[in-house]
Recover the amino acids of this structure.
């Protein structure tokens, strides 16, 4: 039961601003992909999967990643951050939500 609650909380955290523009953060651009890469490498190094299973997983991940970006909208605002750079905002869309539901 606690795992289901944790999954629902994670799904809510990653998809709460799907339909509105939000500022890009380091969490979504750097930390999550880096964590996923390290976790995947550690998992593969402990238990060697077959090439078929590994290939299918990579293919499904690539297709889901592509699908999640098909509804992405980018907005460069007129405001600037503390470094003088323009603030970039993104809106993910329903494709991003569907992708996370499939992943979880």
């Amino acid at each position: 039961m606690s795992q289901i609650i944790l999954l629902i909380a994670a799904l809510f955290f990653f998809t709460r601003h799907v339909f509105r523009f939000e500022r890009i953060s380091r969490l979504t651009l750097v930390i999550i992909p880096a964590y996923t890469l390290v976790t995947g490498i550690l998992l593969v190094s402990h238990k060697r999967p077959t090439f078929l299973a590994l290939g299918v997983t990579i293919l499904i991940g690539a297709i889901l990643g592509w699908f999640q970006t098909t509804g992405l909208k980018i907005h460069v605002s007129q405001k600037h951050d503390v470094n003088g750079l323009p603030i970039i905002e993104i809106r993910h869309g329903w494709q991003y939500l569907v992708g996370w539901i499939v992943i979880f």
Summary: The longest helix spans residues 26-46. The two ends are 15 Å apart (CA to CA). The chain has a mean pLDDT of 86. Strands lie at 22-23, 73-80, 86-91.
